[in-house]
Amino acid sequence: MPDFEFENMFTAQGYKFICGVDEAGRGPLAGPVCAAAVILPNDCVIQGLNDSKKLTEKKREFLYDIIIEKAVSYSVAFSSVQEIEEVNILNATFLAMNRAISGLGSECDFAIIDGNQVPRGIPVPCTTIIKGDGKSYSIAAASVLAKVTRDRLMLEYDKAYPQYQFCKHKGYGTKLHIDKILECGPSEIHRLSFLKKIYEKQ
Q: What is the rounded distance in angstroms from the CA atom of residue 71 to the CA atom of residue 66?
């Protein structure tokens, strides 16, 4: 379970406002990638908070409101499908993370980022933590905000493109989604570079 070990470690080094950063949507075949940055009060315990992948959709939605209510500051940002296609998914993820951190403004002086690569251009000192969403409270909070925000966006896309049934898979490469792509062809929110292997198998 996540805790404040890393946040406390950097607070002891003199940093005051430490944000956790995580993303959602690197793997899907459609839709943008989303990143969130969250600063929580020191030792703010939110019951049940964990890596968003280990939580049910209902639990994530419940925690989303609590995180927003308790956070000192938070920011959520996207990289578009067009940006994913232009600079690749890794760089687009880094771009979204930069936007999320920058969205906190002067309220952030250190960032703890999920993963093993430091995104270029981060505006504050930072470190990375592998599987940080299961270790750091702040990163876990960011993972929930990013996941819920992106899922909500995909539900809006479901209304615009009902033939793909985004409400059921949120753009991930399920059999249903792949079947719908093959049946209807890609939409303007599909990541064409991600679809090459699908068509190669046909």
A: 8
